[in-house]
Amino acid sequence: MNLDEVAELRRRLAEAEETLRAIRDGDVDALVVEQQNVSQVFDIGGGAEAYHVFMEAMHVGAAAIDGTGRILYANARLTSVLGFTQNSVQGSRFTDIAPEEVAAAVERIMPRAALGVASEEVGFDRLGEQVHYILTATPLRLSTTHGFAITFTDVSERVRAEAAEQSERAAHAVIASANEAVVVCDREGVITHANAAAELSFGGDLLGLPFADAIPLIFPDATGLLQAEDIVRMVVDGASVQGVEAHAPKAPKVKDYLVSAAPLQVGHDMINGCVITMVDLSQRKAAEKQQLLMMRELDHRVKNTLALVLSIASRTLHHEDTLEGFQQAFTGRIHALAATHSLLAENSWTNLTIGDVVRSELAPYTAGAAGRFTIQDLGKSLAPRAAIALGLVIHELATNATKYGSLSVPGGKLSVRGRAEEERFIVEWRESGGPPVTPPTHRGFGQTVITRSLQYTPSGGAEVDFAPEGLVCRISLPLEDLHE
Amino acid sequence: MNDTPQPRKLTLYVAGQTPKSIAAIANLKAIVAGPLAGQYEIEVIDLRQNPKLAKEHSIVAIPTLVRELPVPIRKVIGDLSDVEKVLVALKVQGE
C-alpha cells in the first residue's frame, strides 16, 4: 500500500466519522440508503410533504419557521395574505418579504414562543386597505429541526366593526353635546335622531315623526315656495341648505331659527338621510331690535346736539365783542358739552349722577385746590337731557367764578349741595370768600344759559342771587328726569 | 492554472424541501454571495428527484456540500449555518 492509498483511506475514514457525527447531532434530516444497488432517500422523522398537505388544509394563514426565523414552508392562504408567491418565500425571513409591521411582530413573538404559545395582534396596509391579523406562534419540532408554527388569523372585520361602533358612539356624543338643536332624518324625512336641545325646543319625543310635522317651519324670506319637507327632499337629492332663516310658530319657547341641512353619508355609500341643525336666533333678533332703537336714539341726539351747538355759536357771537372773546367763550361751552357727552357715553347714556356731572365740569379748576370745594348729596341719577343742560349751567357758573367770583382769589370757597323739595330737586351753588359781588350791568349769554337751559319743562330752571358776600345759584332739576 | 478566472463548482445535495435542505440552500447562497463572492458557482442536486446521483460522491447524509476541485475532494455535512466551519472546510492549502 503506497502513501497515496493510505491518505485516501484516512480521508474516507474521516468522512465516515463526520457523517456519523452529523447524524448523531441532528445536523441532517435525510439519508440515502442503497438496497440491491438502488439508491433511496429516507427522511428522518417523516417527510415534509405530510405537514405541507396538512398546512394547506388549514383555514388560516400558516408558516413553519426554523429556530433562526427562516421560513420552511408557508401555506397558500398566508402567501396571499402577505402578497407574495409561494416559491419566493422558502428559505427567506419575514424581514425580507413581509410588511414591516408583520416582520417586527414575528421578531417580537419568537423569544416568547420559545417558552410556550404566544400571540400578538398586528395591523398593516395591504393594497391601500388596513387589515388586522392575530399572530400565534407555537414551538414545533420538524424532524431534527426546532422551530415554530405561526398562524395568521384575520380579524379585520372585527376591528372594523369595533371602529364603526366607536365612531357611531362618537357621532351620537357629538350630536348630543351640540348646543344647537340637531335632528337626523332618514330618506323619507322621518326623524331617527334628535338631541336634547331639539327635544327641549320642540317639546318632547321627536323620534319616528316626520320632520315637517314635528317641526313645522315657515321660511319668511322664501315667499311660501320653501316648506319644511322640501328641505329634506333637496338634501336627500344631494343639495345642501345653509343658513336659511325660519320661523317656528308652534315651538314652545324659541320662535326664530337659522336652519342648515346637509346630506348624511355613511362611508362611501349613497345618501342615507339628512342632518338638520337649527340655531336659536331669538337673542340675535332681540339684539337687532335693540340696535335699531339705539340708532334712532342716536340720530335724535345728534340732531339735538347740532341744534344746541348752532344756538350756542349764534348767541355767543351776539354777546362777545372780540373774536378772541368769542373763541374763548365758545370753546369753553363746547368743551363743557363734550365733557358731559363723554360721561354719558362712558355710562351708556344711563346711570349718570348729578355729582358725576358737577365733578366733571369742575375738574379743570379743582386740581391742587383741595379744601376749597364742598360737594354734597348729589347721588341721584339723572336723564341725558338733564345731564347735558346741567353740564352747561355748571360750566357757565364755574367760568364766571374764576373770572369774577370766589375762584378768582386764593381764599375763595365753593359749595355745591343737593336738596329735595316738593315737585323739584334743588342743586345749590354757593360761593364765599371772593371779592364783593355786584349785579352785572348787562345780561350776558352766560346768564341766559344758566337760567334757560333747564326750562325745557315747567319744574326746571335756575335763579341767580348776586348776594354781596358771594354768588348763590339755585338750580332746579325736574323730578321726572331724576331717579335713585 | 490558479489564474483561471472561471468560478469553481460547489455541489449541494438536498432532499426536496426538508427543513435542513431549505436552510442549507439559503445559507450557501448567502456564503457564496458574501465571504466567497465570485469564487464559486452552485449546483443543487435534489436526490429525492434523482437518488442515483448520490453514488457519484458517495452521499449518505443530507444535506451535504461537495467541493470536487481542486483535489482533494471536500465535504461539509449539515445545514451550513456555521459559516466558519464551511470556510475552513473549503480552504485549500496554498490558496
UniProtKB/TrEMBL annotation, chain A:
GO function term, MF aspect, one: protein histidine kinase activity
Reactions it catalyzes: ATP + protein L-histidine = ADP + protein N-phospho-L-histidine
InterPro entries named among the record's database cross-references: HATPase_C_sf (IPR036890), PAS (IPR000014), PAS-like_dom_sf (IPR035965), PAS_4 (IPR013656), Sig_transdc_His_kinase_HWE (IPR011102)
A Pfam short name: HWE_HK
SUPFAM superfamilies, per database record: PYP-like sensor domain (PAS domain)
The EC number(s) this enzyme carries: 2.7.13.3
PAS domain mapped to chain residues: 47-101
Keywords assigned by UniProt, alphabetized: ATP-binding, Kinase, Nucleotide-binding, Phosphoprotein, Transferase
EC top class named in words: transferase
Gene3D superfamilies hit by this protein: Histidine kinase-like ATPase, C-terminal domain, PAS domain
Family matches, as NCBIfam families: sensory_box
PANTHER family reported for this sequence: ETHYLENE RESPONSE SENSOR PROTEIN, TWO-COMPONENT SYSTEM SENSOR PROTEIN
Protein name as annotated: histidine kinase
The species this protein was found in: Roseococcus suduntuyensis
TrEMBL record, chain B:
GO biological process: rhythmic process
Gene3D superfamilies: Glutaredoxin
InterPro entries registered for this protein in UniProt: KaiB-like, KaiB_domain, Thioredoxin-like_sf
Signal peptide: none
Top-level taxonomic group: Bacteria
Annotated SMART domains: KaiB (SM01248)
Domain (KaiB): residue spans on this chain: 11-92
SUPFAM superfamilies: Thioredoxin-like
Pfam families: KaiB
Entry protein name: Circadian clock protein KaiB
